[in-house]
Specification:
Blueprint lengths: L1 H26 L15 H8 L6 E8 L5 E7 L4 E6 L8 H13 L6 H10 E6 L4 H5 L21 H13 L3 E7 L5 E2 L2 E2 L2 E4 L11 H17 L7 E3 L9 H7 L3 E7 L9 H20 L22 E10 L2 E13 L6 E11 L6 E6 L4 E4 L1 E2 L7 H5 L3 H6 L2 E5 L14 E3 L17 E5 L2 E7 L2 E4 L2
Parallel strand pairs: 3-4, 3-5, 5-10, 8-9, 11-14, 16-17, 17-18
Antiparallel strand pairs: 1-2, 2-4, 6-7, 8-10, 11-12, 12-13, 15-19, 19-20, 20-21
């Protein structure tokens, strides 16, 4: 009888938290901080929001970066459990920072979630470091301005940013630590994108489980189960090899229950807005579970049920059965970003990342072009002077006529722009060759009609 009653309670708790998470997921838009709508924002953007926070928060300058930018801590609540979250240890990993700013808006709102806010405020003191590496953020790069990877500086503490994180963790005597990162879009799990990866990092090479890590494993599995409804099959366990220099491993070793959250890729979510929303739900769910103790019912060993990240890399696009130039093969495409001068915008160039039999390779998008005639693209014969002339062209008509590339000699602002035709400042040497690292422009025709155009690694329908 007691087992039945306990099982009934567990079922009620699970349903209640599931309903809450679904509600938070749906409500996220009303708390979004609109000043950081893209991945590429800077220190001043975050400081503007942080310095404008209300009396519910305690905002302090914890120190400065190598180049003298302020690194702030934001605290909320007055409960006995100390929770520390830090983001942008790597300057180009910005998803969780945006989620933090959204959470600040949530915490200072006055609406139907007041009971949740009150519970967290009374049970937890919540500390945030929204941007640990502002110098790296200014250049949208991983390392700090001295070239140090802060996440490999937990032993020597050579960087002021690393010393600051250690000092804050020690001063608040953090019971819980959340190490918030971004991973590449190419990370996979079970043949799908690893949109979120989770880890309760080990504290030694033997990957031993003590009480502290066991608590982190319970909460990690709890978070997996709560968030999986939004991205089924797209949550993986990050590799748990012990890294003796890393902060997550060492903070776990120092006695803080530590969880790593890595934000990966989601189909067509180039600016990671959907993953930002998932982070918003994840972090609120985590603190609520800590405040209520809901995670304590999760068996420690169930942590190992989380599927591990895969070894195969997600491709952005795979074209299967491309019959061209006397060879039938599959072609995979990936993409790289070129920074604008101020690092706030970028231009994407796709490239061929693999060729051959790719039947076992996962991808965000796939097309089987069996039965299509593959036609090499051509460069438009008239060089244009300005972008305004390009905007006046009927691009679909040009594509149907076989023109996939155009030269615009002046005023090409490619950064942040997307054209349905490849744009060059000078005539390209080749646009047709399929080779590793290349970026071919191709048309796909069936029954005498051009159906698709491959432009800069994207397939565009022409019907």
């Amino acid at each position: 009888m007691r087992f039945v009653v306990l099982a009934g309670i567990l079922m009620v708790v699970t349903t209640t938290y599931g309903q809450m998470n679904t509600s938070l997921y749906a409500a996220h838009a009303q708390y979004m901080e609109r000043s950081v709508d893209t991945r590429r924002f800077k220190h001043e953007d975050v400081m503007r929001t942080v310095k404008g926070l209300g009396k519910e928060f305690t905002v302090r300058q914890a120190g400065t970066s190598v180049e003298g930018r302020s690194i702030m801590t934001v605290s909320y609540g007055n409960g006995p459990i100390q929770v520390l979250m830090w983001s942008q240890m790597h300057g180009d990993e910005t998803t969780a920072t945006r989620a933090m700013l959204d959470i600040f808006n949530f915490l200072q709102a006055n609406d139907s979630y007041n009971d949740l806010r009150k519970k967290m405020h009374m049970a937890v003191t919540w500390h945030f470091i929204p941007m640990l590496n502002p110098d790296g953020a200014s250049r949208f790069t991983r390392r700090n301005s001295k070239g140090i990877d802060i996440n490999r500086d937990a032993l020597r503490l050579q960087s002021p940013e690393g010393r600051l994180l250690k000092r804050v963790r020690d001063s608040v005597k953090a019971d819980w630590g959340f190490n918030l990162h971004d991973q590449g879009r190419g990370t996979s799990v079970l043949g799908k994108p690893a949109t979120i990866s989770l880890l309760a990092p080990p504290f030694n090479a033997e990957r031993a489980v003590n009480e502290s890590r066991g608590d982190a494993m319970q909460l990690t599995k709890y978070l997996h189960d709560q968030i999986t409804r939004f991205i089924p099959g797209q949550i993986g366990a990050y590799p748990d090899d012990f890294e003796p220099r890393a902060f997550g491993d060492n903070i776990q070793k120092w006695g803080t229950r530590t969880i790593l959250i890595e934000s990966g890729g989601f189909k067509q979510d180039w600016e990671k807005q959907e993953i930002r929303r998932l982070n918003f739900v994840l972090l609120l769910t985590a603190v609520d579970a800590i405040a209520s103790g809901a995670y304590e019912k999760v068996p420690v060993d169930s942590y190992f049920e989380i599927p591990k990240n895969g070894e195969s890399r997600m491709q952005e696009l795979i074209l299967f059965n491309v019959d061209y130039d006397g060879v039938r093969r599959d072609i995979a495409f990936d993409r790289r970003e070129t920074d604008s001068e101020d690092f706030r915008k970028y231009f994407v160039r796709s490239f061929v990342s693999d060729i051959g039999d790719l039947s076992t390779s996962p991808a965000y998008l796939t097309f089987d072009v069996s039965g299509f005639e593959v036609i090499p693209g051509k460069v438009y014969g008239t060089e244009l002077e300005t972008v305004s002339q390009l905007q006046g062209l009927d691009v679909d008509r040009l594509l149907r006529e076989g023109y996939t590339d155009v030269v615009v000699k002046q005023d090409v602002d490619a950064f942040g722009s997307s054209y349905k035709i490849n744009v060059h400042k000078q005539a390209p040497s080749a646009v047709q060759e399929i080779r590793m690292g290349g970026n071919p422009s191709l048309l796909f025709r069936k029954n005498g009609t051009v159906k698709y155009a491959l432009i800069n690694g994207s397939m565009y329908p022409l019907e």
